[in-house]
Amino acid sequence: MPLIKNTSYSGPAILFNGHLQTIIPGLFRKSLLLPFERQRITTEDGDFLDLDLLKNDTDKIVIITHGLEGDSRRPYMSGMAKHFFQHGYDVLTWNFRGCSGELNNKPFFYHSGATYDLDEVIKYIEKDYQEIYLIGFSLGGNLTLKYLGEPVERLKKIKKAVTISVPLHLKSSCIKISTGENIIYSNRFLKTLKQKVRLKSQVFPESIDISNLDSIRTLHEFDDKYTGPMHGFNDANHYYDKCSSLYFLEGIQIPTLILNAQNDPFLSSKCFPFELGHSLDQIFMEFPEIGGHVGFSPRKRKEIYWSEKRAFEFINSHD
Predict the structure, then answer these.
(1) Does residue 1 have a pLDDT over 50?
(2) Lowest CB count within 10 Å: 57, 162, 291, 306, which one?
């Protein structure tokens, strides 16, 4: 069955809980210097997306999507990119709107279900490749799964996907990350999200009201006031209901790995749908007991991160 029970991950003993397994890699892992080629594409609605490309002159490419308030060159992105690049794949990492260090052109940003941008990235690059593989982290994982499961015919060139630390159910995960000791994470995200809204309001004062911005204390409140309405949803709950990838898994037609650690402080219990894992032929669910959020540190410093190893094993396998 696609529910993988005998997971092989065993992290360093010194990182003994989910918080350490999340925070330490985020603080101390360094972004790798790789020969990225920066490209900017214009979207159909007149905005732009910044992409970073590594070329081996092959006919297969891995497209990697980052998480909330991340960017294309975060350490977890460059680590994954390096591993595939060293094994002969071309690699493309890309930035959500407003995440490449420059505000985008529209009075909105990005969100967990903005599959139209991933589609533009794929359509831009696909002419040069015969095989396309997708990898998504966290919010980018949710977006990747939703993209693959939407009732739209996708390119046959897309062969497999791997998603890591995915908030499959957005509402309950948003509540968890804003509760108790987990609030340190939501506060960090809120700080940068609020700053983007302030900057955006200077360009679009007629569209963006920041009068109550300082009173927002949770991601749910932020999504209710900004993320949802900015992107055409009634409110936060409407946004979560329409964009949670949990509701799109049954539509996925290619082999896809979902890799979520059970001690991930970002993920609710609904992000571990064990029963569903027995019924979906194309979805492989691997839920190790430990690993944190976008963590999965190796036991030894010079080893590759386990998530990179598993992603490569899954994508490079021929079964």
Answers:
(1) no
(2) 57
